[in-house]
């Protein structure tokens, strides 16, 4: 159970504590923030509403802890990460319980997220030892006009304090995807979890605490974004921000100052289906890609662009699969569970009503109970409908019929987003040409968009983000190059004579 057993220290009364200086603490504010269960729409948990003064203290401690952590041998950093990964997987049940109650993630998917997170931490430990254990040796006479009088040694050094801000939909996995690279690289880490998902994050942080990381190296502050959000992202003690979320990321990037940013800010991932596509494969991928976790994924299929000649057949196959999706509470492992909040459900409904007003074809009856929205496929969607461009983050999927590949690429590229896309065709040459033409960070050929495996590069262009994620890319991004140049009095050559 959440807050029990080894996790008993992280809660007092009915309010979960925040984590600073290696200890679980209550905020001096005396206030808390309620976390609403999307299924019951009642308060499920409460977390501390930290103050700006407490943030200042966290930053001060993080800076001091990082200095000594940077001197910790790489193998020792990796050893602690492996230990944290094992503890995380050992306690997957209570963490998964939090995910079910905070974000209505189906129970089996919640367990999968925690196990995947442990695997990510272990992989990062291994990858970090390899990447950071290597440097470069350069010589001066490779550049015209120089003799071999300079030896240049390069290595990767930590940035300092990393601020990690994960989203509600994968609060544990996307938190550790930032935490583990930061730590193996020698940085300290300040985590600001999303409100929905905060308690799962606090449990995850306690696994790192139990692993024995130095005090102050990892901190987790909870609270209202309006009170500590800008204060955190604009704090002079922060040397890098890794953020996954939505429009807030654009505001952060404008305010953050001259520090490295890693941003993933959503997408309107297009699925282009050609005449020669395997329609059964495409339909299965569209349903999985569009409706998994109720469509609340940055890499969900957000719009289907299908050639008119096969559109009827594809829509029929997709509808047959949609009819088999189970709808209900996450505890029962239903395919479609309540979306994260009432405001999110209202936004999705607004997109649906706009499409209805503009005569989109409803393949299913629109149905909503509270935050629970039944899966809906909208056919004959036109570019003048909001759903054609806006990201619903819910179980509603638009189908736009196209008459040429160029028309599909044009729609894809006209979006403000550019995270991922996919194309279904049996012609690999055509697939590569379309992939190259699509203005997205990743294109999947004959599969739905996906972030993983977690060591693959993951990035967006345009409003979908800055920089690239994936374990190797994150380690490199959270370090900077340091060079030392040895100047020789006379040219020297390997195996040369004195």
Automatic annotation (TrEMBL):
Its main location: cytoplasm. GO terms for cellular component: cytoplasm. InterPro entries: Ald_DH/histidinol_DH, Ald_DH_C, Ald_DH_CS_CYS, Ald_DH_CS_GLU, Ald_DH_N, Aldehyde_DH_dom, ALDH-related_metabolic_enz. The keyword NADP applies. Pfam families: Aldedh (PF00171). Keywords: Cytoplasm, NADP, Oxidoreductase. CDD domains: ALDH_F11_NP-GAPDH. Residues 24-483 form the Aldehyde dehydrogenase domain. It comes from the Eukaryota. It is an enzyme of class 1 (oxidoreductase). GO terms for molecular function: glyceraldehyde-3-phosphate dehydrogenase (NADP+) (non-phosphorylating) activity; lactaldehyde dehydrogenase (NAD+) activity. It catalyses: D-glyceraldehyde 3-phosphate + NADP(+) + H2O = (2R)-3-phosphoglycerate + NADPH + 2 H(+). It is found in: Cytoplasm. Its EC number is 1.2.1.9. Belongs to the aldehyde dehydrogenase family. This is NADP-dependent glyceraldehyde-3-phosphate dehydrogenase. The lineage of its organism: Eukaryota, Viridiplantae, Streptophyta, Embryophyta, Tracheophyta. The gene is GAPN.
């Amino acid at each position: 159970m959440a807050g029990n057993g080894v996790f008993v220290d992280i809660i007092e009364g009915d309010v979960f504590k925040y984590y600073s200086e290696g200890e679980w603490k209550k905020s001096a504010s005396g206030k808390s923030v309620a976390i609403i269960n999307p299924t019951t729409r009642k308060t499920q948990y409460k977390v501390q509403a930290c103050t700006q003064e407490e943030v200042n203290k966290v930053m001060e401690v993080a800076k001091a802890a990082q200095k000594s952590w940077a001197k910790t041998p790489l193998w020792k950093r990796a050893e602690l990460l492996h230990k944290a990964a094992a503890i995380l997987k050992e306690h997957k049940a209570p963490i998964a319980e939090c995910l079910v109650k905070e974000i209505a993630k189906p129970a089996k998917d919640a367990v999968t997220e925690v196990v995947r997170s442990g695997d990510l931490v272990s992989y990062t430990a291994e990858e970090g030892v390899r990447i950071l254990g290597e440097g470069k040796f350069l010589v001066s006479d490779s550049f015209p006009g120089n003799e071999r009088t300079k030896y240049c040694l390069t290595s990767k050094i930590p940035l300092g304090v990393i601020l990690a801000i994960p989203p509600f939909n994968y609060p544990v996995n996307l938190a550790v995807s930032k935490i583990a690279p930061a730590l193996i690289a020698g940085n300290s880490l300040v985590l600001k979890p999303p409100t929905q998902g905060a308690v799962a994050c606090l449990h995850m942080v306690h696994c790192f605490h139990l692993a024995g990381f130095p005090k102050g190296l990892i901190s987790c502050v909870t609270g209202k974004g309006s009170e500590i959000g800008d204060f955190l992202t604009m704090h002079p003690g922060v040397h890098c921000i890794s953020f996954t979320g939505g429009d807030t990321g654009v505001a952060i990037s404008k305010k953050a100052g001259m520090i490295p940013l890693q941003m993933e800010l959503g997408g309107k991932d297009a699925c282009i289906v050609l005449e020669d596509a395997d329609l059964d494969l495409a339909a299965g991928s569209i349903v999985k890609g569009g409706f998994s976790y109720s469509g609340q994924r940055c890499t969900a299929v957000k719009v289907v662009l299908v050639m008119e000649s096969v559109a009827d057949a594809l829509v029929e196959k997709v509808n047959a699969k949609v009819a088999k999706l189970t709808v209900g509470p996450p505890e029962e492992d239903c395919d479609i569970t309540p979306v994260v909040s009432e405001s999110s459900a209202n936004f999705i409904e607004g997109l649906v009503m706009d499409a209805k007003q503009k005569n989109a074809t409803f393949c299913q009856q629109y149905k909503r109970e509270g935050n629970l929205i039944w899966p809906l496929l909208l056919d004959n969607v036109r570019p003048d409908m909001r759903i054609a461009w806006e990201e619903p983050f819910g179980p509603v999927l638009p189908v736009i019929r196209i008459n040429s590949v160029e028309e599909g690429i044009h729609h894809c590229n006209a979006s403000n987003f550019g995270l991922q896309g996919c194309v279904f065709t049996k012609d690999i040459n055509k697939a590569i040409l379309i992939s190259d033409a699509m203005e997205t960070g990743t294109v999947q050929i004959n599969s739905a968009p996906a972030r993983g495996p977690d060591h693959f590069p993951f990035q967006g262009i345009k409003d979908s983000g800055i920089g690239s994620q994936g374990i190797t890319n994150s380690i490199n991004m959270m370090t900077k190059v340091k060079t030392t140049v040895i100047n020789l009095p006379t040219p020297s050559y390997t195996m040369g004579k004195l």
